[in-house]
Amino acid sequence: QVQLVESGGGLVQAGGSLRLSCAASGRTISTPRMGWFRQAPGKEREFVGAISWSGSSTWNADSVKGRFTISRDNGKNTVYLQMNSLNPEDTAVYYCAAGTSGSYLLPGSYDYWGQGTQVTVSS
To answer: I need a labelling partner for 113 at 20 to 30 A (CA). Which of 1, 47, 81, 88 fits?
Structure first.
């Protein structure tokens, strides 16, 4: 089992920045791939970014490229999502997820999920 706990969400003005953290515990070695997803009210959960175990490979959704950066510190079992130039369309609950294989784009490829952290961007 793997437990994931997100933190760092909050209210920020458009153009501002936030850094989300996802602390993992348990059998983290069994879930090398980590991802971030978000879900806005009335919308489906959508892929934001993912990172491989070593951190050498990262993937980002087109909507956040150039603004969001995903990174990880395996010594701390923590994954980060640095979000810059935020806009109101980024408002959503952000979820951290852990998995082993399959398409990094799809929620179904991840086995474990955190409880989510709310990000609200005001205009």
So the answer is: 88
Residue 60, pLDDT > 90, answer yes
Could you give the CA distance from residue 20 to residue 113 in angstroms, rounded to a whole number? Answer: 15
**In the predicted model, what is the mean pLDDT of residues 74-81?**
93
**Alpha carbon separation from 51 to 10, 56, 77, 88 (Å, rounded):** 23, 8, 13, 25
Among all chains, which residue has been given the structure tokens 């510190």?
A: 73
Q: Give pairs for 39-45: CB < 8 Å, separation 24+.
A: 39/92, 39/93, 39/95, 39/116, 40/91, 40/92, 40/93, 43/92, 45/95, 45/107
Three-state secondary structure call for residue 108: helix
The predicted structure's pLDDT at residue 105:
92
What is d(CA 112, CA 16) in angstroms, rounded to the nearest whole number? 30
Are 120 and 60 within 8 A, CB to CB? no
The whole-number pLDDT of residue 61 equals: 96
